Amino acid sequence: MLIALLKGKLIDAAYAKRLQDYCCPACRQRVTLHHGTRVQPYFAHRPRAACTILGEGETQQHLMGKRQLMAFFDSWGTVSLERILPDIQQRADCWVERKGQRPVAIEFQCSPIMTRQVAWRTRGYQKLNVYPFWILGSRYSKQKLGWSLIERFATWLRGWGLCLLFWDVQHQRMRIDHHLYQDALGNYHRRTTWLLNIDELIAGNQVPLPKLVLDYPKWRSQLARDLHTKRPAVLAIQEALYATGHHVLDVPNFLMTTTVTLPVFGQGLLLWRALVMAQLFALPVLRITGTTIDSLAVKSFKTVGGHQRAVWFSADKALHKAQCSLLVDLVALGYLRPIDENWQICRRPKWVGETKSVRER
């Protein structure tokens, strides 16, 4: 904690003197000033003190980072440290007041935190019409990009798309992993940019994004290895396809696509398309309703390990878009024909294995 009360006035630990009666601005309990030669000054509750504002033990990285972030955002508005919000029992690490715009609460997250805690804090800020910036410390910057990070912390920023923000205390600069997406084979992608000031953050990405190239032979080889090692995620997909008379290694080439999606499709958009199509053409009818297709889309999404909801977004629009795109492709290839609000099966697609007399697995 960097801010405490002294005789009714807020005081920064950097300017505090020893042997004073400091107290916590939230719970009004006594706090102690720690002012050594190797660590920057800070206040701490006394042992076994229970503060009304939920908190966590602060490392030197966290304490230093809060001051650095205060300087980074300084030209964006009036910035203060450790703003207490009693209505939602939260203490923002930094607070930015912007004239005529929503205030911004900056959460510099260095310690482990669960998704439900991030969601609870985020919803709390939103109730007060405050925009929360989750900025991550070194613990998170070393992690591989995956759903765990995206689910908790990925947010939308103008000019950066879906992104993650990190703060490098040692070099006093921001890292932004931006334009997060997933390719059809299930791989996560990002572009990383380092920022030295708030103007660069406001300006957005100025560099063209690289062209996406997919290695389908490598993908098939990996699928074969996953089947051989009985990887649960792939086995679940194979079992669903087997029930329709197909094999995961026989996915038709016409289903392959360079379309990118929100990073919510688990094992990837291609396997989702294969599951939906396999189950669609295995139905014992020739006319398919929209309700049936909706049901197959959701069922297949679960089978590929799709993620329905993150703290900042849901998969609803991405799933609907993927469903519409698949139907357009099947109609264009002559497998389906739209009739009113339903679809008529015209012919059934062939899978790769169906064109061979013998297949070694």
TrEMBL record:
Alphabetical list of Pfam families matching this protein: CoiA_N (PF25164), CoiA_nuc (PF06054)
Task: List each copy of the Competence protein CoiA nuclease-like domain by range.
Answer: 58-179
Task: Cite the Competence protein CoiA-like N-terminal domain residue spans from the record.
Answer: 17-53
Q: Per its UniProt record, what InterPro entries does this chain match?
A: CoiA-like_N, CoiA_nuc
- Name of the featured protein: Competence protein
Q: What is the lineage of its organism?
A: Bacteria, Bacillati, Bacillota, Bacilli, Lactobacillales
